């Protein structure tokens, strides 16, 4: 708590950690230049005597993942889930289209979506984020980093990062809102499972009765716009980035769903497993699809290696050094 009574959250790097230092620098540079109600706010920072700490506004309702898992004790009905999806999408759309230069988050996942006292969603953790310069032609060639399960397979295989990589990750989060499960559980990948189960002839559950969060499934026909929400989610996780919508298009689609349910989306106020440095393929050969059967089946083993590589320099994810000097506006 600050001297004025404001409750804050502290993110502290391990002393002497180069990875933590890079993430510290990245987050300060990016958060000092972006301001949006659906992005977590940076209150201040400390960098002295070897200490590196970031001070954020406090989010009393934790992460979206905690809420979906039941750990927070908060039940998210369908309308609340739609509002959380809309807020998160608006935050990402701001980064992609209104930040100057545009910013690709690169680690969108349910543990990086925080909820305030009103369950308003705020996108957090900019330690992996990447600026898109005017000369980069819409993509950035970079070492692959992210979180398996949310990671865009096209980005993984080409090592070319675009805003559509965030769109893929957000599509996975949308499916999480439906299933309340982590993207990879017991060797099953949520995108593949939903794609195989979908049945548009089932007007109530669209073939997802066994996949859905039981709390939603028991609501029956009260899931306004469920089919449209599912359709948008599956468009976001298309294999080809060119087939995915932009985040602003996702925002408009979710707004329409809520408006059809009588919600004024202009004034609504309610609504982290570690990231991995995947590196390049050994020997310079083509990278395999990240969600083939072998990779998904070995997910638990991969997690152990990921945690060792990350060294927990920060609570959230690894760092990425920016190639250009960024001056706050």
From TrEMBL:
Topology relative to the lipid bilayer, per the entry, is:
Single-pass membrane protein
What EC number(s) would the UniProt record show? 2.7.11.1
Cell compartments where the protein resides: Membrane
Keywords assigned by UniProt, alphabetized: ATP-binding, Glycoprotein, Kinase, Leucine-rich repeat, Membrane, Nucleotide-binding, Repeat, Serine/threonine-protein kinase, Signal, Transferase, Transmembrane, Transmembrane helix
| Cellular component terms per the entry's GO annotation | membrane
Organism of provenance: Populus trichocarpa (Western balsam poplar)
Q: Which domain of life is it from?
A: Eukaryota
Q: What is this protein called?
A: non-specific serine/threonine protein kinase
Q: Which InterPro entries match?
A: Kinase-like_dom_sf (IPR011009), Prot_kinase_dom (IPR000719), Ser-Thr/Tyr_kinase_cat_dom (IPR001245), Ser/Thr_kinase_AS (IPR008271)
Key word Nucleotide-binding present: yes
Where composition is biased (Low complexity), the residues are 264-276
